[in-house]
């Protein structure tokens, strides 16, 4: 039996890794660390740092790095993602077979939480259907959405109001979701908020949340949209990659936010 643990590690800040995550890492026989190319070397460096700081010296854990397959960029998005997940599952399976010989505990560190816009659970499902005997465990982690609201000191939802969590691609294609005044946007390739009318919209934006290079900007979208785009492009050039997220609210969803704020949060990381 293979015990596979998907461990949420928050945004890579050791202070945000739960005790349950630390325990699961130390109980593993094998930890797999994905490499995503030179441009995103920071991501594997952070995972290495977590292993060095969180693994007990006596823990007999084998840490193995591997190159993550690259997703094809052809037009059929869902089909390319499906093929990509197949390729990743095959790599996971090959590494597990090679290093565990049919039994043992393997762990993967997942940014944020495995449940929120992350594909590790779907990839693990492919492994389970491949004929391997795999027991799956999920260790929840702090999400970038939680860090965004914490750093800006705001509640995610307005009083008695729903929130829509979506992606930049869906916002570009479909516009503002119906029936909600608050929208959290993840996985935006850059500037999807420019497709919506900005006059009555407020934005809280954050990049590299929880990291030492964290950057925050907030304000009325009409006033700060260009600044966010410029800062985002500058950060991407500087670091070679970027992870950002933002929350949008219309004016009639701002009352509960303004009632709990003691003052404006200044832009950070600028």
Automatic annotation (TrEMBL):
<protein>
    <submittedName>
        <fullName>Precorrin-6A synthase (Deacetylating)</fullName>
        <ecNumber>2.1.1.152</ecNumber>
    </submittedName>
</protein>
<dbReference type="GO" id="GO:0009236">
    <property type="term" value="P:cobalamin biosynthetic process"/>
</dbReference>
<keyword id="KW-0949">S-adenosyl-L-methionine</keyword>
<keyword id="KW-0169">Cobalamin biosynthesis</keyword>
<keyword id="KW-0489">Methyltransferase</keyword>
<dbReference type="InterPro" id="IPR014777">
    <property type="entry name" value="4pyrrole_Mease_sub1"/>
</dbReference>
<dbReference type="GO" id="GO:0032259">
    <property type="term" value="P:methylation"/>
</dbReference>
<comment type="pathway">
    <text>Cofactor biosynthesis; adenosylcobalamin biosynthesis.</text>
</comment>
<keyword id="KW-0808">Transferase</keyword>
<dbReference type="InterPro" id="IPR014776">
    <property type="entry name" value="4pyrrole_Mease_sub2"/>
</dbReference>
<feature type="domain" description="Tetrapyrrole methylase">
    <location>
        <begin position="4"/>
        <end position="224"/>
    </location>
</feature>
<dbReference type="InterPro" id="IPR035996">
    <property type="entry name" value="4pyrrol_Methylase_sf"/>
</dbReference>
<dbReference type="InterPro" id="IPR012797">
    <property type="entry name" value="CobF"/>
</dbReference>
<dbReference type="GO" id="GO:0043819">
    <property type="term" value="F:precorrin-6A synthase (deacetylating) activity"/>
</dbReference>
<dbReference type="Pfam" id="PF00590">
    <property type="entry name" value="TP_methylase"/>
</dbReference>
<dbReference type="InterPro" id="IPR000878">
    <property type="entry name" value="4pyrrol_Mease"/>
</dbReference>
